Amino acid sequence: MRLVILGGGESGVGTAILGKKKGYEVFVSDFGKIKGNYKEVLIINGISWEEEKHTEELILNADVVMKSPGIPDKSPIVKKLQERGIPVISEIEFAAPFTKATIIGITGSNGKTTTTMLTHHLLKSAGLNVGLGGNIGKSFAWQIADNKYDSYVLELSSFQLDGINDFKPHIAIITNISPDHLDRYEYKYENYIDSKFRITMNQTEDDYLIYDADDEAICNWFKTHTTKAKLIPFSLTKIFSEGAYIKNNKMEIKISQEEFTMDTEHIALEGKHNMKNAMAATSVAKLMQIRKATIRESLSNFQGVEHRLEKVLKIQNVQYINDSKATNVNATFFALDSMNTPTVWIVGGVDKGNDYNELMSLVREKVKAIICLGVDNKKIIDVFGNVVDMMIEVDNMNDAVRMAQRLTEKGDSVLLSPACASFDLFENYEDRGNQFKQAVKNL
């Protein structure tokens, strides 16, 4: 069996290692450059590879192709594979059959990283032998090749779910759905929504789907679609006989005749959206039969996720907050919503078809100045130009942070929450967040 892998990054190299171990003839092809550390791994394992090209005669003879999530379906090589009827799947689809572990899969437009990390923290603190992977950390396939975990908590992007046929998590979570990555879905929101719901398409009556019952897109999907999985909703406003909700400042979770309650003030994560993330993760912990005392302790000591509303430093009584992970409008909505001081907002990057009007009321209420950090800021300036007193364009992070410092007074906050992808000026959102933190430390 010939396994061809498109993309020589974390998921590609992880799949190559697992494929080799399982007896496939493996070839890795990357249209860009492969990082040095990944090249070394391929060479040590005797796996053939190429970079900066896709050689068709070495690819179109595959029995199966694993495509890295960053490569769009409309790329020429993928189209040629599809025309020949060669299956093109994601790492998750390739790797899952090689493990008997319990799989918890988490998707959503926002909150999925926090929910994934928190779920992993809850299970690990309880002494479970649990791996963390998917869109974060070490490749899922690589972990299956190297480790023997009893369960995995996987963060799954819509791109990874697009490449599944048979994959099914025992417990699935959809944190929420808002327009994102529409450039990859023919600018049709319904295509993107359907993509997220692929997480439950193979689930049976023995599986669970945990979802945000306040989310309009999710509730609308249920009006015309069904899943066999047992449904566990969570909500800030509704109350359920089976599900998770907030009542009188208490988080309450009722699952299969069992109840769990905890005062929200003892939960380490702040903000309404994080209450939802906590309800989703705690629902998993209950399904996995984790003791109540362990859940309470883990929820109260969880550290949060880097680049997501991360408090960097307070300088001259001004709080600098790194929310570089906010790569869409909905994520920035949560960030602005959680601000309770006058805010200088650093925004901009590669626009993915954003509608900034959704932020209008929050910007009027909370933002005193906007710093545009992107190659093309026209859309942001058009929407907010008349709303804030001060609008400034910069083209690097040091200028953005220095300018922000000039515009603040004691008691203000500086919030990096770009609402955009980072690829115009940075390698990725981590690079953008790290540059922000460094620039703040240099003030």
Please give a quick description of this structure.
This is UDP-N-acetylmuramoylalanine--D-glutamate ligase. One of its GO terms (biological process) is peptidoglycan biosynthetic process. The protein is an alpha/beta fold and 443 residues long.
Q: How much of the residues is beta strand, in percent? A: 15-25%
Name the overall outline.
globular
**End-to-end gap:** 57 Å
Please identify which CATH superfamily of the largest domain we are dealing with.
Answer: Mur-like, catalytic domain
Which class best fits the helix and strand makeup?
A: alpha/beta
Total domain modules: 3
* Relative helix content: 25-40%
Task: List the uncertain runs.
Answer: none
Q: Give the strand order of the largest sheet, numbering strands 1, 2, ... along the chain.
A: 7-8-6-9-10-11-12-13-14
**In CATH terms, what is the fold-level topology of the largest domain?**
UDP-N-acetylmuramoyl-L-alanine:D-glutamate ligase
What's the total helix number?
A: 17
Q: Kindly state the mean pLDDT as a whole number? A: 94
Cα-atom Rg, whole angstroms?
22 Å
Query: How many strands in all?
Result: 20
Q: Largest sheet, described in full?
A: 9 strands, mixed
**CATH level 1 class label of the largest domain:** Alpha Beta
Which architecture of the largest domain does the CATH hierarchy give at level 2?
3-Layer(aba) Sandwich
Pfam family, one: Mur_ligase_M
Pathway: Cell wall biogenesis; peptidoglycan biosynthesis
Keywords: ATP-binding, Cell cycle, Cell division, Cell shape, Cell wall biogenesis/degradation, Cytoplasm, Ligase, Nucleotide-binding, Peptidoglycan synthesis
InterPro entries: Mur-like_cat_sf, Mur_ligase_C, Mur_ligase_C_dom_sf, Mur_ligase_cen, MurD
